[in-house]
Design brief:
It is built from eleven helices and no strands. The chain is mainly alpha-helical. The relative contact order is 0.19. The N terminus is likely disordered.
């Protein structure tokens, strides 16, 4: 199945689509306006490292995503989304709550520390059978927003996809298609609907094999 061209200002629409809603918006604004203290964030991150690892590399089976090196504004937005029930994950809803992150300042601090991490954990990859179809589909359907290298956008709204665990990426895309990730659903629904299942799996396998952006280049 062919992907239809979507004549929209995609980067601007993505930023708007990913923006938290309601009371979450003021909390995100406060976190983004705060002067982040990565050293304090490192202390807070000790709790996070039990799952995400010291380097923010997550788990290769995709049960825990790689977050090291993600843009601080994106990390802050996602933390608020979890604590405001705009994303669903029982572990993250627990550890992003006010008992663990008491304020917008603490969200800013830990987000800044996560952004500074250099991942060492090797990404979990797919079986390679759909890799060729996935690479072609990525450049056709995804690269206009996520770039040829799948790296984080300087707008702070576009995540780093390169080197993310294949199983995690596949789960997020399927959740977006099914409406289980409302913040992704609007902007991704049309491009994803134009993909075959082979292409969808192949895209995630292709991205998992790409090299994450080194810290020095950020």
């Amino acid at each position: 199945m062919k992907v239809k061209t979507v004549a929209l200002p995609l980067v601007a629409l993505m930023a708007a689509t990913l923006a938290p809603r309601g009371g979450a918006l003021s909390e995100v604004s406060a976190a983004l306006a705060a002067k982040a203290d990565p050293a304090r964030g490192a202390e807070i991150y000790r709790t996070c490292s039990a799952c995400h690892g010291d380097d923010g590399g997550g788990v290769r089976d995709g049960s825990i995503p790689a977050i090291g090196g993600m843009p601080a504004p994106l990390v802050a937005r996602q933390l608020v989304n979890f604590r405001r029930e705009q994303r669903s994950d029982i572990r993250m809803e627990h550890f992003a709550d006010a008992r663990h992150l008491a304020s917008a300042q603490e969200i800013a601090d830990v987000a800044a520390y996560v952004a500074s991490l250099e991942r060492r954990t090797q990404a979990g990859i797919g079986d390679g059978r759909a890799l060729d179809a996935g690479a072609k589909a990525y450049f056709r359907a995804c690269a206009s927003c996520h770039g040829a290298l799948g790296r984080a956008g300087r707008d702070g709204a576009t995540p780093a996809l390169a080197g993310q665990h294949q199983a995690y990426l596949e789960r997020q895309l399927r959740d977006a298609l099914a409406g289980r990730r409302p913040s992704m659903h609007g902007i991704h629904r049309m491009p994803l609907r134009g993909l075959t299942d082979e292409e969808l799996v192949g895209i995630t396998d292709y991205l998992s094999r790409m090299t994450p952006e080194p810290r020095a280049a950020r």
